[in-house]
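can u pls check wat happens w/ MF3
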Amino acid sequence: MSISIKTPDDIAKMRVAGRLGSEVLDYLTPHVKPGVTTRELDRLAHDYIVNVQQAIPAPLNYAPPGYTPYPASICTSVNHVVCHGIPGDKMLKDGDVINIDVTVIKHGFHGDTSRMFLVGKVPGHVQRLCQTTYEAMWHGIVRVRPGIRLGDIGHAIQVFAESAGYSVVREFCGHGIGRMFHEDPQVLHYGRPGTLEELRPGMVFTIEPMINAGRRDIREMPDGWTIVTKDRSLSAQWEHTVLVTDTGYEVLTVSAGTPAPPEFVSEYANAA
Ligand code: MF3
Ligand code: CO
Ligand code: CO
């Protein structure tokens, strides 16, 4: 396993790719409402990335070993879909939740980010799952600094999510990212403190926990991509691309519309 260390020039490019990825989500936000189809969201995102950003939608035709080429430009994962939902005829309705996952390539570097969107009026228990998943991601992010280990990140996320009564998906994880979409290391969202790779300045990876309201078990659909919860319980996910700096972290996937970090983030920074 070899984890690439980004140069200052690489990092400047990754800031641009990260901002563009996040700006796609900003652009889609007013369109995520009852009646829109996931295919329409994909078309909007594709045209914006290609024509406005003059960037490349990384998912389109992406084909890791053992997979058929991914047929769309974004992933749209609705309700009990955990991740990699393929845009199609599905129409969003009041009370749905959807994760939209965007990855763009600009000047050879990737920016990968996803958010949850609440469609219309969403029940309180569903809002709580989405909010807890957002906070779980941030419990991982705040730990990022040189000298800590990947197991510290996974542990923080797991403890927080499970304490809230939810389960953590094991089969999919965050990942190193740069010139390639998925690089070393794997960033598990569960684990034991003090284990796995030690972080060094210049590493860049995603943190993207998938948290289920029910059991953690998943199932792959016959399309070869879509992952759902086995018990059909709801699942939520948030994702940022994060740089390890000399003293801590920098979130690269930020734009005007990026949701503010949870309250505890500043408290954690002040305590550190
Ligand atoms: N964006 C996803 C991730 O966070 C990967 C999607 S692969 C695709 O790693 F082919 F489905 F787009
Ligand atoms: Co990712
Ligand atoms: Co992603």
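The longest strand covers residues 97-106.
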